[in-house]
Known about the structure:
Blueprint: H1 9-22, H2 27-34, H3 38-46, H4 53-63, E1 66-69, E2 74-77
Antiparallel strand pairs: 1-2
Helix pairs in contact: 1-4, 2-3
Amino acid sequence: MAKKQMHKEAGLALLAKKFRVKAGISKAEAARQLGISRSTIQHAEEYPEKSLTNLRCRMIELYSSYRVMGPGFWLERK
């Protein structure tokens, strides 16, 4: 069994951005898809101190082949 890597808030913010960019989705398009504002996407990706954990997890799951498991936040293939 593969070892699971734990991620903190800052790591989730980086992963959310990485997977969105890799999927070729702009911040504006992500905002439309998720029904939120573009500035909220900006805050989720660039300000890990903000409490946007659920949004980051949604973004990671939407734009990657991973499912976020908690409360320790590790990625698992879907």
